[in-house]
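Objective 1.3, modelling of assemblies. Example input:
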Amino acid sequence: MHTTDSTETTVTYATLHQFVVSAFERAGLSPGDAKAGADVLVMTDAWGIFTHGTKLLRGYLRRLKAGGLRAKGRPKVAAEGPAWAIVDGDSALGQVTSVFAMETALGKARGCGISYVGVRNSCHFGAAGYYAWLAAREGLIGLSMANDKPSVAAPGSRGPITGSNPIAYAVPAGRHHAMLLDMSVATVAGGKVYAARTRGEKIPSTWLVGADGKPTTDPNGYPEIGALQPAAGHKGYGIALLIETLAGLLSGAAFTSGVGNWLWDDGTQPTHHGAAFIAMDVDAMMPRDTFRRRIEAMVDDIHNAPRADGVARLYIPGEMEWERYELAINKGIALPSDVVASLKDAAAMVDMNFQKLYS
Amino acid sequence: MHTTDSTETTVTYATLHQFVVSAFERAGLSPGDAKAGADVLVMTDAWGIFTHGTKLLRGYLRRLKAGGLRAKGRPKVAAEGPAWAIVDGDSALGQVTSVFAMETALGKARGCGISYVGVRNSCHFGAAGYYAWLAAREGLIGLSMANDKPSVAAPGSRGPITGSNPIAYAVPAGRHHAMLLDMSVATVAGGKVYAARTRGEKIPSTWLVGADGKPTTDPNGYPEIGALQPAAGHKGYGIALLIETLAGLLSGAAFTSGVGNWLWDDGTQPTHHGAAFIAMDVDAMMPRDTFRRRIEAMVDDIHNAPRADGVARLYIPGEMEWERYELAINKGIALPSDVVASLKDAAAMVDMNFQKLYS
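Predicted structure (tokens):
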């Protein structure tokens, strides 16, 4: 989500990418792993999802230095069959493991039509949508999901039960950019609650439950007490438990309350996040041109459908992100000030100077 | 959803099942197909999902008599690979085709670990959860989804864009009943809006958009005008388009506005619904006892978690349905009066007498 911050610093995609590669290398990652990590974080910024892009670099560097993330960790296939694999992340950077896992899924889907790869011993993986897009970029359908330290209530619970458990999909869409949805199972991101708290504002009663487990309009307890409400109540909760099943239970990772907080928990220890990736080979099932015609027709129909008064456009999932991406590539990425502040801290941790890159 | 109707008629599971089998046979289905259809509808009633159980029999019989559903239709595998298949439903009863498709998926998942079966030339398939449960009953994880005639708005649209597009999953859960979620992508089922209209009540502003595409608390236009709102806004809309992709685009079925209304459109014509089924073989990836221990631990943790004041229990998806099922098996199925009225009509269509079964 684009922050509302009005003070922005514009850097080119290439400059930001090179900075992140260097920072990861200085923290001990191989050039290949550093590039994989930078690919994920900078693409996420280019999509305008600044909460999950390079702002996170600082936290990852801290955990790499403390040892809970292993700079030389090597994800590997721990078990596999024709259309599935379980990947052990070896406590490497979550992005490195997740790219490896989705690439494994793509290979298996090309042979079998569909594949599942479960991941254990991973960590926070950033934006789920990136890995789904790795599939769509090559003409396949991709799904990506992960569990996380609990922050979201179940209907009726007093505290958090599941993580915000991101889930994303991407579908190649012919002449259009890939259809791309990346969502959490909570009504809103915790960052929106925290921002309201900072501004001293009340929040809608659908965002949070308080210490008593009841809906509240008071953001002041969060994140220390209370929990986010699941999106659409039992529906968001139910999807959260499907994600726990595929990313946590079946992969051998931690699940629900067993998952660590990648940012705040002891940096010397692994968090044991789980993740899951599913790929589907469109080409195996339908001539590529047929699928292309069909999805283009669906997208065109939606674009041309009647709109409510005052609504300029109907969006396909991902369209807003792809328009920000085009702007980022052509005009540079306009980083909000909180991201810049975080990048300056990150640079200092590895004896670099971020400001030098653009001033 | 259990109706709020206070006048109930209790019949045994076996009695109701035999009635539905006979009715389908009198409409021309083979004994095997009639049993498959009855299995789905009566199980759905036993779960207390009376909106999607035997109440639908009347509409299916009407379409079977008109020819839009083909009593002698035979679903078949039209194309396949190691872990996928496309099933052509041949305009058979949607339930018959869907059971065939999920059984095809189970066979392929046992060999490959995961499988996808897309379905075209199907019709309304009733409760998505039934087919997911077919997988869980045999120790596999199942997902089930379908598209439908548009009834749900996109954010900002003036009318419906996608179907209510049901999606369900089921996961075997050791000593517990299978975890089972069956949801639509709309905030609420259209039936709830219609019930409020019948009672002359206003509705919450999150349920419906009116003729102008704006949220409304007035249910009086529905279903002729307006559209249901997607659950959690762009999230429900995004999931609806994933379902259109897997159930409609990739299977070769109709999609979005191309899908017919199984109840109201010309009964002599097929509706071209699509569906998708995914199965995952837990046993291939993890020792069965290990998975069982893990999911039992997750369920137990949730059951034991702190609750908000006044909340007696935290539920796992499906628990309410399974408790109604136990009651239905032991004490009979308490059919609401609208279901009984529909069954009496259905009986008359095939020269049977429903009332004779229980009075």
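Residues 94-112 of chain A form the longest helix (19 residues).
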